[in-house]
Design goal:
heterodimer; A: 141 residues; alpha/beta; Rossmann fold; six-stranded parallel sheet; B: 219 residues; Alpha-Beta Plaits; 2 domains; 11 strands; 26% strand; elongated
Chain lengths: 141, 219
Amino acid sequence: MFVLIVGCGRVGSSVARSMLADGHTVSCLDQDPESHARLEVGLDNSWEEAGGQFTVGTALETQALEEAGIIEADAFVAATNGDNTNIVISQIAQRRYEVDTVIARILDPLRAEWYREQGLKTICPTKVAIEMLEDKLRGVA
Amino acid sequence: MYVIVAGAGKVGVNLTRELIGQGHEVTLIENRRQRYVGVEQLLEHNVLYGDASELWVLERAGIERADMVIAVTGDDEDNILICQVAKEKYGIDRIIARVNNPSNRAHFDLLGIKPVVSATELILRLLEHEVPHHNLVHLLDLEEEEIEIIEIRLGAKSPVVGRSVGEINTPDNSLVIAVIRDGRGVVPNASTVFEEGDDILAVLDPEREEELKRIFTDA
């Protein structure tokens, strides 16, 4: 499948590399050209030589999304460092581009929960961290 | 009326002050600490420190009893989110969102956030009215109601110059409501004759715009 990942930070770049290793077509979009370097961590050759795509652009620009391949995408991951950006672009991917699978990373548990109820696939790392910490502490007590 | 305003920039602060002056109850939400401290001196308890896109902050501001939510932060995604949550989670019917970057306008439309206010678009529209670079200017667009008012400048080559209102067959759902000549507007009747340089105002269904344009301009 074709996976488009918006936001090439620690999360986005790692998911991009794993998906590429699994044999999928992977395209990344980030506004910072320097974030390209993160994609190549642990790779023997360049991201492009490994078969990946990288586009510099802002997530809200439809032109950048299209350049990064949103029209062909089967899956869309919103992993920028802004919760609201992720929420808005995920809905754009769902409603405007009708991407089959759309997943948004949302740090705020309350927003993640409400948008999940509205039908968005959300991942909330904060909630996961809270639960793990609670488990660890309860394991000690 | 109880109004929540998100974003204490120039627009948010002045809006809050005006609304309070008009007797409304207002809470202005600002998440930049320094900005908040400065604005609090001016507006005191009407300002709340916090991120208006966090649900608990909106709830602390009393969103459940708000009559209106106005999102005028400098970030379009924040304004979209605040209005979407206000409307869909808390059932606030009346929302207004600011569009900072006109190219984001389509996202507001897509997610049903309306009405929106875009300073850039307003200025461009005024500019177009003052210095039209083509013959047609939109004066009013009621998108929901599917009606608009446009102004058309009649050039020398306009096919209607020298003919009267009665002679021109305008399409259904369109009507010439005024002719502006030498800076004065008149409501035309069937015998009013169009002259070169006239600005005519027409009310119409937006779908009739192309047809009307063909009739009145040389385009």
